[in-house]
Amino acid sequence: MIYRNTCPLCGSSQIHEALTAKDYTVSKETFGIWHCGTCTGRFTQNVPDGAHIGKYYQSQEYISHTETKEGLINRLYHSVRKITLRSKQNWVRSASGLKQGTLLDIGSGTGAFLHYMKTGGWNVTGLEPDDTARHNAKQLYQIEALPVDQLFTLQQQQFDAITMWHVLEHVHELHRYLEQMRKLVKPEGAIIIAVPNYTSLDASYYKGFWAAYDVPRHLYHFSPAAMESLLAQHGITVVKKHPMVFDGFYVSLLSEKYKTGKSRLLQGFWHGLRSYRRGLKEVDRCSSIVYECKISS
Predict the structure, then answer these.
(1) The whole model's pTM is what?
(2) CATH number at residue 106
């Protein structure tokens, strides 16, 4: 287990426990979530190290690895995925200024996004740590994803865009990854990172039951201020933020199940709608935020 005396995002010693959360997906264990008073980031305390965390991903309910459609919430996820994939494509095109180019997706899962971009004419490379997810990517989409440790063998400045969709919060070697991403993207290229936002309206309501804490798989929990501070340490500047508006619905439905033990569709939908409407008005209160970034000049 990894116990931290300082914030893994900024190195400050001004940290304290903020709340606890349960792993509802796999282990049913409880973990402490600590808060940094300096950068406002949060992190999960006493997490398994990289060699031992794999078992916490071994669940048919872990949709990014299995493509499961079991249960109402996962079926709803699939029903809006085409819209989400189109949004991701538009963000990449807008951020890079290109309709076609070279793309690296870190944590590519079962390959749905890479497949969508490839059919749009992009030259794609995927990195994925999970063997099952890589196998499913090949079977489902003919995507040959590479093991994630290949990140550090790739040629520098070869990608027009690098994407991480809900992946950064899983990475043990956080600073090493960000430094390598800065090296791999072309000078005028774009880095696009999506992460959950613990300062969102739905997180404030559900507190320790908020599904996007997803302990211990989520090692870090970001606020907008913490993200900008973290990226700036590596010469990466946030130029625009986008709301991932549908995440509030998915997360609220799952959080409602965790809180009550029941799939209360109406209640979860209502809190998701509140988060959706707030996120449209104020990006920093959205359930998940997409950070469009450039290399600092």
Answers:
(1) 0.91
(2) 3.40.50.150
